[in-house]
Design goal:
alpha+beta, elongated, five-stranded antiparallel β-sheet
Amino acid sequence: MEQADWDALKAQMDSPWGSMTLQCDQFVLTLQQHTSSKSKSWMTGVYVDGLFKGAWVMASREGEALHDESRRFLRKVSKSLYCRKEVEAYRKVFGKRAADKHAAAKHFYFDPSWKSFNSLKKHLLANNTSITRINEI
């Protein structure tokens, strides 16, 4: 894609309920603006070949994508398995070294929504060889 196409995509995604379709290698990617129910802010949702499968959000224990669609188009998220309060309680019982291992435990998953257009663009460019804009009438 050329810079003019990226600028048009960014302008479309700045408007409420904007939508854009891209051809990324052999996949048809649909980007749609929607509101987040938690933060009441705009986010860009990703649909691959017109749909989103729940299996795409799963990741391995090491954080690797189980599906090619996850790796290419979705945002990787890591969360701590234990809150700070649980880690402190664990530290009192088992000691600092064991608590540090406990605190390092993470849970990984892939999220289909993007808050930042620039991070979405960077991710798409890094994980796809050819990206073209599909003009819809």
